[in-house]
UniProtKB/TrEMBL annotation:
Matches recorded under SUPFAM superfamilies: Lumazine synthase (SSF52121)
Record-stated family: Belongs to the DMRL synthase family.
The protein's enzyme class: transferase
Record pathway: Cofactor biosynthesis; riboflavin biosynthesis; riboflavin from 2-hydroxy-3-oxobutyl phosphate and 5-amino-6-(D-ribitylamino)uracil: step 1/2
Signal peptide residues on this chain, from the entry's feature table: none
InterPro entries membership: LS, LS/RS, LS/RS_sf
Summary of the function given for this chain in its UniProt record: Catalyzes the formation of 6,7-dimethyl-8-ribityllumazine by condensation of 5-amino-6-(D-ribitylamino)uracil with 3,4-dihydroxy-2-butanone 4-phosphate. This is the penultimate step in the biosynthesis of riboflavin.
Keywords assigned by UniProt, alphabetized: Riboflavin biosynthesis, Transferase
Pfam family, one: DMRL_synthase
Cellular component aspect of the GO annotation: mitochondrial intermembrane space; riboflavin synthase complex
Name this polypeptide is given: 6,7-dimethyl-8-ribityllumazine synthase
Reaction equation(s) it catalyzes: (2S)-2-hydroxy-3-oxobutyl phosphate + 5-amino-6-(D-ribitylamino)uracil = 6,7-dimethyl-8-(1-D-ribityl)lumazine + phosphate + 2 H2O + H(+)
UniProt GO BP: riboflavin biosynthetic process
Length: 205
């Protein structure tokens, strides 16, 4: 019997030629770690090579749009070739860090024909409502900015930002809920969405 909610499992895509970036915030780290792991597992299951996955972190969700925008523009590659240090002291890493972009001059992934550094970017953050209006402002700004980046650049930006009203809601959406409310790790769908959209956009270009 099919589920009412969630994506259909039918879209099986070969990710072996795709380049994917994961950009994540560091607020609410335990939940973030589970979501990043979920996304990463699905990327690898779909055949995305470790050398074509880059993981970058930023302080909080509010910083995700700028980081995604610069990753799509390929700023990390310019840093790697020591031409222009656009990102100051930021420390880029990847699943397979010795083989990809770094400030030490090791080879960066080649830029695909679309002239974009990545086929898709997954933006991961966990926003949990507090006592003030901070949550509403950040949720609104981040969701609109991420949508604008993907539409303006033509590079899919997967919306991996949990906007939870309390800790339990966030934990359950990372598969970390308590007792019989363990929930499901939404990072897995974000990984699959990145592969599917990256592959679609290659065809559509
Ligand atoms: C300030 C703040 C607060 C209150 N809550 C969160 C949160 O729940 N999740 C998150 O990712 N970031 C939070 N931040 C940090 C902001 O996103 C941002 O990093 C700072 O305001 C600095 O620009």
């Amino acid at each position: 019997m099919s589920e009412v909610k969630g994506p259909s499992p039918n879209a099986k895509v070969d990710g072996s030629s795709l380049r994917i970036a994961i950009v994540h915030a560091r607020w609410n780290k335990v939940i973030i770690d589970a979501l990043v792991t979920g996304a990463l597992n699905k990327l690898k299951e779909a055949g995305v090579k470790e050398s074509n996955i880059i993981i970058e972190s930023v302080p909080g969700s509010f910083e995700l749009p700028l980081a995604c925008s610069r990753m799509i523009a390929g700023s990390h590659i310019q840093v790697a070739s020591n031409e222009v240090d656009l990102l100051g002291g930021l420390n880029f890493s990847s699943v397979n860090s010795p083989k990809v972009a770094s400030r030490s001059g090791t080879p960066a992934p080649t830029i695909p024909s679309s002239n974009q550094a990545f086929d898709a970017v997954i933006a991961i953050g966990v926003l949990i409502k507090g006592a003030t209006m901070h949550f509403e402002y950040i949720c609104d700004a981040v969701s609109h900015s991420l949508m604008k980046i993907q539409v303006d650049t033509g590079v899919p930006v997967i919306f991996g930002v949990l906007t939870a009203l309390n800790d339990d809601q966030a934990l359950e959406r990372a598969g970390l809920g308590k007792g019989d409310k363990k929930g499901h790790n939404h990072g897995e769908e974000w990984g699959l969405a990145a592969v599917e959209m990256g592959s679609h956009v290659r065809r559509w270009n």
